[in-house]
Design a protein that fits this description.
178 residues, alpha+beta, Pemi-like Protein 1, Chain: D, Beta-Lactamase, 2 domains, five-stranded antiparallel sheet, two-stranded antiparallel sheet, 4 helices, 7 strands, 24% strand, elongated
Length: 178
C-alpha cells in the first residue's frame, strides 16, 4: 500500500460496543461508507481490514486458473476490486493496487478488450497492459474481475474461457454469499 504508516489514535467505545474508525484510518485502508470490514482477533489484538469476498476463494481461484492454463496460454489473473489475488502464467505482486482505470472498470462492472487506441495498464505506471477485463459480482455489487494480460492478442477461446471463469466465480459468490 502506498504511503503505508502506523497510525495510533485513541477512541472510546460507546455503551453498545461501537467505535468510530477515524477518517485517516479509513482512507489508509481504502474503506468507504457502506463497505464491509473483516474483523479478526489474534491474542489480545483486534485486526480490521476491508472485506474482499474473492480473497476467501483464493485457493479455489488458483485451481480454476490451473484448469484455465490447460486450455489457454494467456496470462490470467483473478483480482479483487483493488488487488491481484491469484495468477496463472506469471508471478505478480498481490500487494500493489490495481490502476485507477482497471479499478473503475471493475467498480462499474464493465468489460474491456484491448485496443491500440485505448490501452490501460494493470498497475499505475506499469509495463503490463490489460488485454481483457471480465467483472465478477452481482448487479450493483462488484467483487473483482478476471483479467487477461496483453503480451499478444488473446484468442477468442482464451477470452471466452476468462469470461466463463468470471461467470463461475460470480455464481459461486451469489450462491454462497461469501
Amino acid at each position: 500500500m502506498k504511503n503505508e504508516r502506523n497510525i495510533g489514535i485513541v477512541r472510546h467505545m460507546d455503551d453498545l460496543g461501537r467505535i468510530v474508525v477515524p477518517k485517516e484510518v479509513r482512507k489508509q485502508l481504502g474503506i468507504e461508507a457502506e463497505d464491509a470490514v473483516e474483523i479478526s482477533v489474534s491474542g489480545r489484538t483486534i485486526h480490521m481490514r476491508k472485506y474482499q469476498p474473492l480473497q476467501t476463494l483464493e485457493t479455489l481461484c488458483r485451481t480454476y486458473l490451473d484448469a484455465f492454463g490447460k486450455s489457454c496460454k494467456a496470462v490470467c489473473l483473478v483480482c479483487s476490486t483493488e488487488k491481484v489475488i491469484a495468477t496463472r502464467g506469471m508471478e505478480l505482486s498481490t500487494e500493489l493496487l490495481l490502476s485507477d482505470e482497471v479499478r473503475n472498470y471493475i467498480k462499474n462492472q464493465k468489460e474491456y478488450q484491448f485496443a491500440e487506441a485505448f490501452q490501460i495498464s494493470l498497475f499505475e505506471n506499469s509495463r503490463y497492459l490489460v488485454d481483457s477485463i471480465y467483472p465478477v459480482g452481482m448487479a450493483g455489487n462488484p467483487m473483482g474481475a478476471v483479467i487477461l494480460i496483453h503480451f499478444r492478442d488473446a484468442t477468442p477461446v482464451e477470452r471466452g474461457c476468462a469470461k466463463y471463469l468470471a461467470d463461475i466465480l460470480s455464481e459461486l459468490i451469489k450462491q454462497n454469499e461469501v
